[in-house]
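Appendix C reproduces, verbatim, an entry submitted by the partner laboratory led by Prof. M.T., so that reviewers can inspect both the input and the predicted structure.
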Amino acid sequence: MNKITQDMRFRLSLIKYADKYGVTKAAIKFKTNRQYIYRWKRRYNGSIESLRNRSRRPHHHPNQHTPDEIKLIMDMRRRNPYAGLVVFWAKLMKRGYSRSIPGLYRFLRKQGIMAAKPPNPKYVAKPYEQMQYPGQRIQIDVKFVPSVCLVNDAKGQKFYQYTAIDEYSRWRFVEAFREHSTYSSAQFLDHLVKNFPMPIECVQTDNGAEFTNRFTTHRDKPTLFQVHLAQYGIQHKVIRPFTPRHNGKV
């Protein structure tokens, strides 16, 4: 149901007052002109809906799309629902379409047939590789220690916590360092190898510069951490970038 606006109520009151006291007095009281009152009196048919503003939209336009162009656009959109504006316009141009890109955009928006967003492929998680014995793979990560966790003499200082967890037995080794560097990582690895009761075959880390130069300007140069891994004969596995869940146990 259409809503009755304040302008419609004003015009109805104006017409009723003009019928009772005359157009001139109505124009003076409502602070409008006589032509305005006469125009709405001619349009008024006893229903307040007749006092609603009519659409000023033209019934036709000399530059509007022709039926053949509309059919071409509709057919092309049905075959290319995900094509962007420029790509869609280029496809139409190959079939004789001569309108501009802004003109095509206005038509698509008006018809509600803009490019649809392609559905995202459903992520299917790969089955996680289960470890068979201790030391087969150990996850290592580093985290900044918040100041609220520091007590006594450690207050006001900066520490980084290195953590290693064996994927099979969940054996954990934790150590704090003053700096966040490949030197600290190598030192932590030395202490880990010394304290772990079994031989270590593989170490898994993220792509941080304290572990690998994979995403630095020295990508061909191994870090001190990787040098120590090679000395111990331990394989180094890095996880996929921006997927910390792959190193989720630690």
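Helices lie at 6-21, 23-29, 34-43, 67-79, 85-93, 101-111, 182-195, 224-232. Additional entries are available on request from the coordinating office.
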